Amino acid sequence: MQKSEIIDLIKDSRIKSALEEQTGLIFEPQRLNFKLALVMLVKNQEENIENVLMKLRQTDIDEFIVVDTGSTDQTVDILKSLDFISLYELEWKEDFGYMRNKAAEFTDADWILTVDSDEILMTNVRLKSLIVALEDSVKVPFSVAFEQHYEGQSAYGYPERLYSPKVSRYFGKVHEEVRDFENNPVQVIESRVSITNLGISKSENEKFDKSRRYTSLIYEMMKIEPENPRWLGFSTFEDLSQYYTEGEFEQLISKQLFEGESSLLSEVIIFQKHKYLLILIERYASFLIAINQVEKALRLLLEGRKIFPQNSYLLFFKVVAELEIIRQKARKSLKENLALYLSLDKERSYDESHQDTQLLETGIAELNKLSGNKKVADIIMSQITDERSLYFWENWNDIRDER
């Protein structure tokens, strides 16, 4: 790979600048003379495993270690037909970090690539060249995170996929991270290397019972490291509602979001400074909107956007919160005006207004739509024949007259 291609894969502006300023050859042949191994855990992936491995074979991986953890389909037979891999077996223990480290013992590689058995590498990349370039700029233990995309979604995650087992290992029963041998998280270098995860469909979730298992493991990690915001960052209240009440969840997330006595009720909000701040703001805002504390959510989001002004997800939640405020006002208005409408004496109203109630019913339909009751609004409007009423409806909803 050319140096410019490596630079394009790195997101950290300081590292990019350091590489741009570097003169001379970065990738002398002797510098690439280290061992890079794939270490992959697999279970029941007969549909994906061959495609996943053949795609990885196009890279500069020196050794392919695949560890089966109890497949009952054709996965093992498929793996045995691939002559470029070394196949091992391990009994599964419900601890992803432990299992990744155990599988890594089958190689003496200097660097390890961890790709799940349902992930397709999408970027054409020489991984050893990327490692060498980063080693020139990062003088502490580090890992490389890949963009993890999902079929049918624009959002992506950032799992750590490249690390050196000589100085680090995985930690965590689920959503594991790379730590040094003193149990400190290594520096994570975010890259533009892209993988597509095929395992988030409803059928895959049910096949591996992911939601229940992952939530249980997250709860265990929260008990092991109660002060670490990482584990709460990978959870929602919906996930953890079997363990915590709304009040308990709010206390947990507030403790890991705000400094000291600061809270959403404080005149000045002071956030803690850690790398999970953004995801916790998102989680807390979503929770507050769900429990109908929209004004609190809006304040949280406005404060969060001061720190993360380019984050479209926070802006989306701000829109959601403001829409909910509009709906709340519409619901209140609907309740009041529907009661007044129902109290009308239709004959006296007709005589006094010189018209029937279709115009008012159109307004009631619009309030239903603003309240989120579109089907009700459509039912009401299907009965409207008055031209002036239809004119208002079309203008409110930017509908062209097709009659």
CATH superfamily of the largest domain: Spore Coat Polysaccharide Biosynthesis Protein SpsA, Chain A
CATH class assignment of the largest domain = Alpha Beta
Strand content: 5-15%
The major beta sheet can be summarized as: 9 strands, mixed
Estimated radius of gyration: 28 Å
Q: Percent of residues in helical segments?
A: 40-55%
Number of individual domains: 3
- Tell me the distance between the termini: 63 Å
Globular, elongated, flat, extended or rod-shaped: what is the shape?
A: elongated
Instruction: Give average pLDDT, whole number.
Output: 93
Helix run count: 18
Ranges where pLDDT stays below 50 over 5 or more residues in a row are none
Structural class: alpha/beta
Order of helices and strands: HHEHEHEHEEHEEEEEEHHHHHHHHHHHH
CATH architecture of the largest domain: Alpha-Beta Complex
Number of E strands? 11
The quaternary state of the protein chains shown equals single chain
* CATH topology type of the largest domain: Spore Coat Polysaccharide Biosynthesis Protein SpsA, Chain A
